[in-house]
Design goal:
Layout: E1 4-9, H1 16-22, E2 27-32, H2 38-43, E3 50-54, H3 62-71, E4 80-83, H4 87-91, E5 101-102, H5 108-150, E6 154-158, E7 164-167, H6 169-175, H7 179-182, H8 202-211, E8 218-224, E9 230-241, E10 247-256, H9 258-338, H10 344-371, E11 380-383, H11 384-401, E12 405-410, E13 416-419, H12 421-437, E14 443-451, E15 455-462, H13 469-472, H14 496-506, E16 510-516, E17 520-528
Parallel strand pairs: 1-2, 1-3, 3-4, 4-5, 12-14
Antiparallel strand pairs: 6-7, 6-10, 8-9, 9-10, 11-13, 14-15, 15-17, 16-17
Helix pairs in contact: 1-5, 9-10, 10-14, 11-12, 12-14
């Protein structure tokens, strides 16, 4: 057995001979003059049992050498003894793990005892460090085992051949195995199916994982329990390598993501269904649009055909009606000349009926032209009061036959305006005719007013039957009548107000209505003094 070593680090220190004499025989004494090389000297052969350092060398590389000794696990527990008159001064601000130093060397016997004490401390000190290290390892291992046992994740170790080397308690419960039934068995076929439900080749994927673990740090795949049921697990994988760089094992930590995958699958199904519904609805809308376009074209064609028919029929009816009216007037003149007064009432009824029928035909022709977009504005300059007066005189006989009184009021003359005389005359005439038709033993008041901003107004107010609120909303629609009952008392086609509104809007204005059922109505035409170009 080789002798134990004692290393003395100094530079011609006078205390060295006394130290060598105090060391018992059986120790190999080695002297070193470079304090920075202490670690190398200690590791060159068997570790020394004691290191003595001249304190005056500490500022000259000694601190560095001692730091290396204390940092290396192999020399961390070596007893170190400082000597020299300035030892306490050199060590006053330094803690290197050793507070044993000799400021003044004692006598030989005391020095020998001190050396022996230091030399005997090395085995005990090394044993204490080993025991402490072993205790620390045991505590760490216990903490690690507690963590592995109580972790709420699957912890798995797989060897390079793909066999299960370790699985924690949570993993065993999760996959439904007892430890003896799973340890040492291949991963594929036990907890991983060879093929996913989707068809992905898991056997080939795990084989590639063992060859290239760095490519699969994160991996989500379908797994299999002992009862054959499938679950999804998100794995975090770490390769554990041997000293030579070869694979020692793969450490994997897995978490159940079956609920997440199911939610994703449900979401995909919902998205697919929504896309299918959108496609179906889009197809329906496209078909509906095609049908609507076809119906629109058919309606346009029907409207044009209707307008053409009405125009032709109006022309065909006007010709004989004008003849009837003309012959009736001639017959009335001849009857007066011959003194045949008895037939005058009959001839008057013929003329009245013919004029009424002609008015209806004119209304039908006007509405057809308006709907066909063929009506045009023909502006001219005329006196507004004069036009209204003419309209009043036309309707006066009919109104007076019903016991009504017509009053024409004008606050101040409006004078000349520029508009379409024919269309305005027809619009005012419709309002007066309606007032005379729906009023009995009442008053029809006509007012002409010049409004601010270059506008004029013509208002026809009556004390007739009035109009209900729900009827006022559709009053200006074609073929709409105030009295729509099967036994209605009042005639008319329901075109007059519709034509009036369209004419007024063509002239840049409008017509409005206010009415109370049973109290009467008021219609107001509002137009610009000069029709827009």
């Amino acid at each position: 057995m080789a002798n134990q070593r004692v290393l003395i680090v100094h530079q011609q220190a006078p205390e060295v001979p006394r130290i060598r004499g105090a060391i018992e025989p059986g120790y190999d004494i080695e002297e070193l003059h470079d304090p920075a090389a202490m670690l190398t000297a200690c590791l060159r052969a068997e570790l020394p049992s004691l290191v003595l350092v001249e304190a005056t060398l500490l500022p000259r590389g000694g601190f560095e050498g001692l730091g290396r000794l204390r940092a290396d696990v192999r020399t961390r527990a070596l007893p170190i003894l400082f000597f020299g008159n300035s030892a306490s001064d050199a060590l006053s601000d330094v803690d290197l793990g050793e507070d044993c130093y000799l400021r003044h060397l004692p006598q030989h016997e005391d020095l020998a005892l001190r050396m022996k004490t230091c030399l005997g401390a090395w085995p005990c000190r090394a044993k204490v460090d080993v025991d402490q290290a072993r205790s620390g390892v045991l505590r760490s291992r216990s903490a690690c085992n507690d963590f592995l046992h109580n972790a709420n994740s699957v912890i798995l170790r797989v060897d390079p051949e793909g066999r299960i080397r370790y699985m924690n308690e949570f993993g065993l419960r999760f996959f439904g195995y007892d430890a003896p039934d799973i340890m040492g068995r291949p991963v594929v076929g036990t907890i991983v199916p060879a093929e996913e439900s989707s068809g992905r080749n898991l056997a080939g994927l795990l084989d590639d994982l063992r060859r290239h673990p760095d490519r699969y740090a994160k991996l989500d795949n379908e797994n299999m329990r002992s009862d054959g049921s499938r679950v999804w697990v998100a794995w975090t994988n770490k390769a554990v390598l041997n000293d030579d760089g070869t694979l020692a094992e793969v450490l994997s930590v897995g978490n159940d993501i079956s609920d997440l995958k199911q939610a994703e699958e449900d979401l995909r199904a919902i998205r697919a269904r929504l896309e299918e519904m959108v496609e179906e609805r889009t197809a329906q809308l496209s078909l509906a649009m095609q049908e609507a376009r076809a119906a629109w074209k058919a309606a346009e064609a029907a409207s044009k055909a209707k307008s053409t028919f009405l125009a032709n029929m109006s022309h065909e009816l006007r010709t004989p009606l004008n003849a009837i009216i003309g012959y009736a007037e001639m017959a009335a003149e001849q009857a007066r000349d011959l003194g045949a007064e008895a037939i005058q009432p009959d001839l008057a009824r013929v003329r009245t009926a013919a004029h009424h029928l002609l008015a209806i035909i004119n209304d039908i022709l006007d509405i057809s032209m308006l709907e066909a977009g063929k009506a045009v504005v023909e502006p001219s300059t005329f006196d507004l009061e004069e036009l209204v007066r003419e309209c009043v005189e036309v309707v006066r006989p009919e109104a007076e036959r019903a016991g009504n009184r017509i009053e024409l009021r004008a606050a101040k003359p409006c004078g000349q305006i520029r508009s379409d005389r024919g269309k305005l005359r027809q619009a005012v005439g419709h309002l007066l005719a309606n007032a005379a038709r729906f009023t009995t033993d009442g008053v029809i008041a006509v007012r002409v007013r010049c409004a601010d901003g270059g506008w004029v107004e013509v208002t026809v107010r009556d004390t007739g039957i009035g109009i209900a609120d729900d009827q006022q909303q559709r009053l200006f629609q074609p073929f709409t009548q105030v009295d729509e009952s099967p036994t209605r008392r009042y005639g008319g086609t329901g075109l007059g107000l519709a034509i009036t509104r369209r004419f007024c809007r063509m002239l840049g204005g409008d017509v409005t209505c206010t009415s109370r059922l049973g109290e009467g109505s008021a219609f107001t035409i509002r137009l610009p003094r000069e029709v827009p170009c």
